Each structure stands twice: as structure tokens, then as C-alpha cells.
Amino acid sequence: MNLFTTLILAAEDGEHADETSGIDLLLPRDVNEIIVGVIAFVIVFGFIWKVASPALNEMLENRQKRIKDDLEAAQAEKAEAAALKEDYAAQLSGAREEATRIVEEARQAGESARADIVSRAEGEAEAIKTRANQELESEKERAMTAMRGEVAGLSLDVAEKIVGQNLDRSGQQALVDQFIDELGGSEG
């Protein structure tokens, strides 16, 4: 026979030998057994209470402390995040104001540059106009001088041909210049 069949047969014999039911299943018949069980229970419970209870309490206290620290850290991070958000909002507002100020300064600088360019252009145009008038007057004077010389020369040539004789050219030139000056004075 093997071990398995032996155990089955022993179990069958044990079932028919002591027929126990009800309360006998929960409480043993022997009072000494109950007393020894209670004493063993008290010893094990006391051992667990003395050894395991402090370790368990310490573990629970550490867990509570860790949870409390985590909550405090979360609140601190939340407060820090709110402060950072406010700081970023202030920086963003400052950046917008700075951008507006820079744009306004650039616009004013552009207006100033435009006004400066316009005034310089007007000044240059006036200077060019003045130079042109001066050159015109200078050319007019040169032309008048050249014309006087030509008119005087032509007048002398005409007078020579009319008179038929050669007149003193320098004396006649002075006479013609005087005449032209008188004519120029009466026209102007």
C-alpha cells in the first residue's frame, strides 16, 4: 500500500470512531486544552503587542508624516506656481508695455527723421534756387557786358562807314559806353 491509501483509510476510521457535532467542534472537551490555548493566545498577543505594535505605530506615524509633508510640499508648490504665474503675467504685461513704448519711440524717430529730411531738402532746394538766381544774375551781367562791347563795336563800325573816315576808336568807345549806360539806366 502506498501512503495515500493509508491516509484515506485512517480518515475513514477516525470519522466513525468519534462522532462529534455542534459545540464540540468549536470547543475542545478538555478544559486544560482551553486554558493552554488561552494562555498561548495571551502570550502571542502580548509578544505581538510589545514587538510588532511599536514597529507598526512607527510605520503609521512615518506614513502620516510623509503624507503631511507631501501635502505641505504640494501646497508650497501650488503657492510657488501661483507666484510664478503672477510674475509671468507681470513680465508679459511689462513686455507688452515695453513693446508699445519701443514702437512709439520708433514712430517718433521716424517722424523726426522725416521732418529733418524734409527741412534739409527744403534748405537744399532754397540753396540751389539761390545759386541758380546768382548764376543767372552773373550770366546776365556777363551777357550785358559782352553785348555792350558788341554794340559799341558795331556802332563804331556803322559810324565809321557813315562818316567815311576813321574815328578815334578809344574816344568813340567811351562815348558809346556812356550812351549805352544812359539807355540801360532809362530802361531799368
Descriptive notes:
The chain is mostly helical and 188 residues long. The chain has one domain (26-183). It has helices at 3-17, 23-26, 31-163, 169-187. Helix 3 (31-163) packs across helix 4 (169-187). It is rod-shaped and about 190 Å long. The model has no long low-confidence stretch (mean pLDDT 81).
Summarize the structure.
The protein has 188 residues and is mainly alpha-helical. It contains four helices and no strands.
Rounded to an integer in angstroms, the radius of gyration calculated over CA atoms is: 67 Å
Overall form: rod-shaped
Write down the oligomeric state.
single chain
Tally of helical runs: 4
The SS-based structural class is mainly alpha
Mean pLDDT: 81
What layout of secondary structure does this protein have?
Layout: H1 3-17, H2 23-26, H3 31-163, H4 169-187
Helix pairs in contact: 3-4
What labels describe this entry?
188 residues, 0% strand, 91% helix, mainly alpha
